[in-house]
From TrEMBL:
<feature type="domain" description="SLC12A transporter C-terminal">
    <location>
        <begin position="473"/>
        <end position="590"/>
    </location>
</feature>
<feature type="transmembrane region" description="Helical">
    <location>
        <begin position="134"/>
        <end position="150"/>
    </location>
</feature>
<feature type="transmembrane region" description="Helical">
    <location>
        <begin position="405"/>
        <end position="421"/>
    </location>
</feature>
<protein>
    <submittedName>
        <fullName>Amino acid permease-associated region</fullName>
    </submittedName>
</protein>
<feature type="transmembrane region" description="Helical">
    <location>
        <begin position="94"/>
        <end position="114"/>
    </location>
</feature>
<feature type="transmembrane region" description="Helical">
    <location>
        <begin position="20"/>
        <end position="38"/>
    </location>
</feature>
<feature type="transmembrane region" description="Helical">
    <location>
        <begin position="226"/>
        <end position="248"/>
    </location>
</feature>
<comment type="similarity">
    <text>Belongs to the SLC12A transporter family.</text>
</comment>
<dbReference type="GO" id="GO:0015377">
    <property type="term" value="F:chloride:monoatomic cation symporter activity"/>
</dbReference>
<dbReference type="Pfam" id="PF03522">
    <property type="entry name" value="SLC12"/>
</dbReference>
<dbReference type="GO" id="GO:0016020">
    <property type="term" value="C:membrane"/>
</dbReference>
<dbReference type="InterPro" id="IPR004842">
    <property type="entry name" value="SLC12A_fam"/>
</dbReference>
<keyword id="KW-0813">Transport</keyword>
<keyword id="KW-0472">Membrane</keyword>
<dbReference type="Pfam" id="PF00324">
    <property type="entry name" value="AA_permease"/>
</dbReference>
<feature type="transmembrane region" description="Helical">
    <location>
        <begin position="194"/>
        <end position="214"/>
    </location>
</feature>
<keyword id="KW-1133">Transmembrane helix</keyword>
Length: 731
């Protein structure tokens, strides 16, 4: 395994941030930020009063539903560093959590760029001679410096900024119109405005502040209580403010003025400079909040081993507060690059896609947990799964309406990270819902599957009696070739050692499964103790399986010991009486190195073993190793006259079963079958032969069979014991 993820990080002493200081304040400062001051007038101008109220309601609804899901997960578990990433990864698993966590980090880091660009834009509006890019970079350096000092210090600074925002909003409320205007319900004309969903995409980052407080989870005194309370307070306060502001703006200026002047609020306000103080404080505080949040997500990703090994140092913390200083420096470089390459209107829609992706998965996580009702999922704050999935649908729907192509790119991006993490095969010590989902599906499928097999949907369920996997590897390799990932397969071993405890058996099963996985063979593994292999095999047949999903086809090797032959034949008889198909593989030691070009199948008719042999040969030819092999159905007839009818029947059968198999009729004359077999299949790379039904003289029969086929290289003996009409599988 590439990484072994364990929660070995010693718990860090909480900095004790309260609900107000740790969640509400950073969340509301992010909500009442750069979009409100510099783009909300543009929003109202483009879509009008009613359009603005609809956008605010839609966007806040998605955020509110996500807040409900977030509260449910946050009150179900101890939330540590990483906030939303931590919660998703501990719910949906490391791959889903990692894919969304990386998206969430990029969203937070881009937020810093957006806020500092907004700050610089507002400065240049007042001092046009200054360089916007340089101001933005200087602002990033400032907030990064504050974040590197202390989370508490950053929290205290935010109280002063919150006061400045309150003063600016009061000044705006007591302001006056800048021109005579009528309320425009739907904004400017189409030639002077942009489409509704483009406006929504620009506005949506204004209501994404909830994750800032969540990502401070490692610094909160009581995260499970503070996150829901602080988040709901911030979302509610933000919604009220954003529903009042369009009324103020729509009654104080016309649409074109709102669209063209980013600083329209300064002109409307009673004390214009209060707006400047507010916008500067809001943009810097929002940037500060995201600068504190993004490195903490990065820190959690690195600690969980999600990031490449070369980035492992980003998981380290510094000082008593466990500050992610390495992560902050990394984020600093990333945000400066984004500032130099983009502007506010370009960054905001990209940011929206990342946030909607993260929020959507967070909602799915809570919804799935609620549907599965796992015993471990007991949140203090209960939310019906419908609201969580409604929030997920809202996120996905908004993404598609904003930009279908961007949605596709976001889905590809997240999927690529998911499969990259899946390929790395990360191990974790916490559970995810994946197992719960699979168990629910298995239960439902087992209840519906029934006991009677439908021939048209028949598939083999192999039980491979391999012993030690290395000693009879050809059994496993051939079973895998027959199954091709479409059949259930269990590699079973009978241990004859005495006093083997359960823990030892589980360890052996785990090691065997890992060994098979390295060989790209995905199989169940089962090991049972028994006095001897024959008793153990019978025990497996009697007790292994679940409902109708019991092994229907037993694959085993031939016996080389004469003294074992009676027990061996008795075991085959037991399999047959238990209505199991039996496949005995007698292969050369260097089987894997031999060519795989010619398969001979000796035909005795559709009944008994014939149909099953052709089915298994057909499955084998689907495999990569045998797909180019020539399958020849061979049949012995006593004379020329019998050959005429036999050939007609064979040709008709091959045509009906839609096979590329050839057929060959051999006239026996005075020769016995063993002589014909040895001569005709001497060069075959694999030979299929049917076994007769077990009887009292089966030991002698099997001994003669071994002698008569000793000249053949690789053989598969097949005995059809299952109560299935295999001829219906063929035609």
């Amino acid at each position: 395994m590439e990484n072994q993820i364990k929660n070995k990080v010693s718990p860090v002493k909480s900095t004790g941030l309260s609900t107000f200081g740790g969640v509400f304040t950073p969340s509301i400062l992010t909500i009442l930020g750069v979009i409100m001051y510099l783009r909300f007038g543009w929003v109202v101008g483009n879509v009008g009063l009613l359009g603005s109220l609809i956008i605010v309601t839609l966007a806040t609804s998605i955020t509110f539903l996500t807040s409900l899901s977030l509260a449910a997960i946050a009150t179900d578990q101890q939330v540590k560093i990483g906030g939303a990433y931590y919660m998703i990864s501990r719910s949906l698993g490391i791959e889903s959590g990692g894919a969304v966590g990386i998206s969430l980090y990029l969203a937070q880091a881009l937020s810093v760029s957006m806020y500092t660009v907004g700050f610089a834009e507002s400065i240049v509006q007042v001092f046009p001679q200054l360089n916007e890019k340089l101001i933005a970079v200087a602002a990033i350096l400032f907030v990064a410096g504050v974040a590197l000092i202390s989370a508490k210090a950053a929290s205290r600074v935010q109280y002063f900024i919150l006061a400045a925002i309150v003063i600016s909003l009061i000044s705006l409320i007591f302001g006056s119109p800048i021109e005579s205007t009528e309320i425009e319900l739907w904004g400017a004309s189409s030639e002077n405005s942009v489409p509704f969903w483009v406006v929504f995409a620009v506005f949506f980052p204004a209501v994404t502040g909830i994750d800032v407080g969540v990502n401070m989870s490692g610094d909160l005194k009581d995260a499970s209580k503070s996150i829901p309370r602080g988040t709901f307070m911030a979302v509610g306060a933000g919604y009220i403010i954003y529903m009042v502001l369009p009324v103020i703006l729509a009654t104080r200026a016309d649409s074109l003025s709102l669209i063209e002047d980013p600083m329209i609020m300064r002109r409307i306000a009673f004390w214009g400079d209060a707006i400047l103080i507010g916008v500067w404080g809001a943009t810097l505080s929002s940037a500060l909040g995201s600068t504190m949040a993004a490195p903490r997500v990065l820190q959690a990703l690195a600690r969980d081993g999600v990031l490449p090994r070369s980035m492992a140092r980003l998981g380290k913390g510094s000082g008593k507060e466990n500050l992610p200083r390495m992560g902050t420096l990394f984020t600093l470089i990333f945000t400066v690059t984004a500032v130099l390459l983009g502007d506010l209107n370009m960054i905001a829609p990209v940011l929206t896609m990342f946030f909607l992706t993260a929020y959507g998965v967070l909602n799915i996580s809570a919804g799935v947990e609620n549907i599965l009702k796992s015993p471990s999922f007991r949140p203090r704050f209960k939310v019906h799964w419908f609201f969580s999935l409604l929030g997920a649908a809202g996120c996905i729907g908004a993404m598609i309406l904003i930009n279908p192509w961007a949605t596709l790119i976001a889905a590809i991006f997240v999927s690529a990270i998911f499969f990259w993490l899946k390929h790395r095969n990360l191990q974790k010590t916490w559970g995810g819902v994946e197992r719960g989902i699979l168990l629910s599906l298995i239960r439902s499928s087992l209840m519906r599957l029934g006991e009677v097999a439908d021939p048209k949907n028949w598939r083999p369920h192999f039980l491979v009696l391999s012993g030690a996997p290395l000693s009879r590897w050809h059994l496993i390799a051939m079973a895998n070739s027959f199954g091709q990932g479409k059949a259930l397969m269990t590699v079973a071993t009978v241990l004859t050692k005495q006093n083997i405890n359960k823990k030892r058996l589980k360890d052996l099963e785990r090691h065997t499964k890992e060994f098979l996985g390295k060989k790209s063979i995905y199989s169940l593994v089962h090991i049972v103790p028994a006095a001897n292999p024959f008793i153990g095999a019978k025990t497996l047949i009697d007790h292994y399986g679940l409902g109708s999903l019991k092994p229907n086809t037993i694959i085993l090797g031939d016996t080389r010991e004469e003294s074992h032959l009676p027990d061996y034949c008795d075991m085959i008889s037991y399999f047959f009486r238990s209505q199991r198909n039996v496949m005995i593989l007698d292969m050369e030691e260097n089987y894997n190195a031999n060519p795989k070009e010619n398969i001979d199948l000796w035909w005795g008719g559709l009944k008994l073993n014939g149909a099953l042999m052709i089915v298994m040969a057909h499955l084998l030819k689907r495999s990569l190793e045998w797909r180019d092999a020539n399958l020849t159905i061979k049949m012995v007839v006593p004379n020329e006259s019998a050959a005429i009818d036999a050939e007609r029947n064979l040709a008709d059968m091959v045509d009906k079963m839609r096979s590329t198999a050839r057929y060959e009729l051999i006239i026996a004359g005075n020769r016995k079958f063993p002589e014909i077999l040895a001569e005709s299949s001497r060069e075959a790379d694999l030979v299929f032969l049917g076994l007769k039904e077990p009887d009292d003289e089966y030991v002698d029969y099997y001994r003669n069979l071994q002698a008569n086929t000793s000249s053949l290289k690789n053989k598969v003996f097949i005995l059809s014991g299952e109560n299935v009409s295999f001829d219906e599988v063929l035609f």
